[in-house]
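Hey,
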Amino acid sequence: MFPKPKPELIPNTYAYESEPMVKATGFREYDARWLFGKEINLMGIQALGMGLGTLIAEMGQKQEIVTAHDFRGYSASIKYALISGLLASGCKVHDIGLAVTPMAYFAQFELDVPCVAMVTASHNDNGWTGVKMGANRPLTFGPDEMNRLKEIVLNADFKLKPAGGYQFHENFPARYIADITNRPKLKRKLKVVVACGNGTAGAFAPKVMEAIGCEVIPLDVDLDHTFPKYNPNPEDMEMLHAIRDAVLEHKADVGLGFDGDGDRCGVVDNTGEEIFADKVGVMLARDMSAIHKNAQFVVDVKSTGLFVTDPVLQNQGAHATYWKTGHSYMKRRTHELKALAGFEKSGHFFFNAPIGRGYDDGLVSAIAVCEMLDRAAGKTMADLKDALPKTWSSPTMSPHCADETKYGIVTQVVKHFEDVKAKGGKVAGQPIRDLVTVNGVRVTCEDGSWGLVRASSNKPELVVVVESPVSEQRMRDMFEAMDSVLRTHPEVGEYNQKI
């Protein structure tokens, strides 16, 4: 009999070392994230493993699972606590050790194992931990599976059995690197800054880029789980500016930045200018749809409007569908529609055959960028970027908002804009052309300027993005319009960054 987890326990007490603690808010829409020690303890992680193994059996799936962990000071201990729970529930565990998240996804195919549990806090600050899970490759859990897992774990409704087993797969990264680099080498010698923020990708990314024929300029690739320079997050301006400086110093063709668990890639062009991932997606879509006619793409609601208005994509017969933000949502939709690729503004890119296996892999994305440059007949990354129709876009801005209140506030914001549209009102001085409410609310005005408000799926934050095809001022007008609505809710805090 395993005790029901408590939502809160005091550290340095008998109870904290003898009972599981699991805060309910850690079960997110499509993965799990907690502040380790404050919101979950090791017995709580063990309970999560028991619950995951129970859920896998309940889903009728074979109880075999790949496990791996990212490079943080506590990730290995968390993984082994998770494994102890998986073993207790009867799972055979295939452990590949320290890995980037896409390496764990690859292992599902390479080892012919149906399920995965990757211990990672992704790009979250130190102190956070989490698990990305799936039981149907190449997909990962969505809200239905996460809600059921939450029920099982918080109620201690475990089905335990003694049939578990453990196998460690030695030197597995070599198999992954060999697989993704098994392609023709680049014809063009590219000088590439490879930035990893001292995160997990530093152990693998330089080798991958060298293997496809790049001259690599390493930047912060030594593993250091204190992240001494900046958090490994290619959406963070501090990381992008460090890449910019290295690109300019070394006269590199492109700068590539990888997040903490290696499933995202950020891009800086040869002039040192960062290119937001949705614009990189448009560039890749242009390149890919020139090869694969009538290509279909899936893009998230945070992404640029160019996916549907770009004349090159239109001429090449490409078609794009907007969908919910979040790697599991995007992965599933790209899979369902058999799209050539899915692009998310955060930098999660999903390539189906012949480029990838459908899951998000920052290193495969980096290879795709380099192969695009290789095909570009001498053009630079800046040339490709400048060939896009001009828009003014914000970074992803994230005002603090507690997990317990963020979804309710977004519901009120959606209703506000629905009421404005129903009454023929204006936003930023213009009528509303359309609303997309598949994930929060994306408000598009008559001139094509748009703003988005949604709840973050993995942090206590809201997400705000704005763009205008008209001018920088119109972009700022849209931000003021969205922010003025948020400021009517005192629960919404300060932004991590603003335009």
